[in-house]
Structure formats: C-alpha cells, structure tokens
Design brief:
By secondary structure, the chain is an alpha+beta fold. The protein contains five helices and 15 strands. A seven-stranded antiparallel sheet has the order 1-11-7-15-5-4-2. Strands 3, 6, 9, 10, 12 and 13 form a six-stranded antiparallel sheet that branches. Strands 8-14 form a two-stranded antiparallel ribbon. A hairpin with a 2-residue loop joins strand 12 and strand 13. The longest helix is centred in the middle third of the chain and has 25 residues.
Amino acid sequence: MTARTTLLSPAGTLTQHVDAQDWQALTDEADEHGSALTGPLLTAEQCREIAGLYDDDQNFRSTIDMARYRFGSGQYRYFTHDLPGPVRELREAFYPRLLRIARGWMAKLGRPAPWPETLEEWIAMCHEAGQAKSAQILLRYGPGDWNALHRDVFGEMVFPLQVVIGLDAPGVDFTGGEFLMTEQRPRAQSRGSSVTLPQGHGLVFTTRDRPVASKRGWSAGPMRHGVSTVRSGRRRTLGLVFHDAA
C-alpha cells in the first residue's frame, strides 16, 4: 500500500485564483452560451501534481473504462470523499460563485432553487436523499479516445453547473480532444460548439440545460457535453461536480 499523495499548494491560494476571475464576464458568457472559459487557475506544476494522483489507488472509490459501458473510449476515476486538498479547495471556492448563476437561471425558468449557501449543507442534502457517492473525477484519454455526449445527472438532486480543468497543454501534450457541447433547440436542428481547454484553465458549463429567451419568455435549452477524439498524446482533466451520486 502506498502513502496518499500530498500536494504542496498553500491553503487559500486556489481560492484566491477562483475569486480573482472576472465573474461578471463569466456569468454573461454562461448565460449566453451555457459555458464560460476561466483564466488560469493552476500552474503547470500544480496540474502535474493533480494529474499524478491518478495512479494512487487510495484516492479513488472506483475506475470506469468508458469503452466497456459504451461511454466512448478512455478511462476516469471517481475520488473518495477524502479529497486531496487542492481538489477540495477548488470545489469549495467555485460553489458560491456558481450558486449566484444557478439561482439566476432558476429565477428565469420559474423553478425552485434548493441550494443553500454552503456546499457542505448542499452535499448533506444530497446524502439525505440517497446520493452519497463522491462524483469528483480525474479523466485520462490517449490516442483514439473520446467521450460520448452526455449529462452528469446522478439522481434527483442536481446542481446545474460544473467545472472541468485542463491538466495538459493542447498542441504540446496532446492534439484533438476538444471539449464539445450540443444544444437542442426547439423546432430546429441542434447546435454544436467546441472549446480547446488550456492547461490550468477551467470551463464552467451547464450540467443539464440553460435558460433560453423566446417570444414567450424563458425556456430550458437541453445541452450535452463530451470530448472529441484525441489524435495524439495524453489528455487529462479534473472534473468538479457539485452534487453527489446515488
């Protein structure tokens, strides 16, 4: 048995990086497109440290082979609830920022916004509802790997936004592997978009749908996300989900 990996990130530093983002611009972009790319959150060294957690079994509760379940090709691992410090800090720092966007979306859609002020309270609510498994993930793709379009909904308790952080440098460590999103539009063909995720940057994106303006007011625009085929190299990302799984 190996010792649990310890990361050397000063407490509070990552929170400062999250807080320093232009949250008005990110909110506007998320409102318009259902996703928004942040500025730098992690250094290259921090990215390597987090990516290096992948081979320490003690960090994870389960491993998913995507081809086995026809999710695509590649592999990802779910963290245990005993999250490494930087992963925990990033998740806790993002929650209050995303909460404001989430509540704004629900107000437009006329839906209840059940999320309390703190992530701890919300996760306790998930556990009381039977969703008690950690949903934080590390994903690893190699040449030819990809991720099918999907939504990360693990039960009735859903937070409408999540974050993926790039841990490798596109064009240097890998090629291909763009983050994909499709939006289902009423009485029209679906619309797609792609984002190249820079190393150390995060993409805020909708878990399930987003408010879309129409002549009759606001309606929910269903969206899915995935990853295009990696053409060469290795692509690793950290996924921050703000509800737990059943």
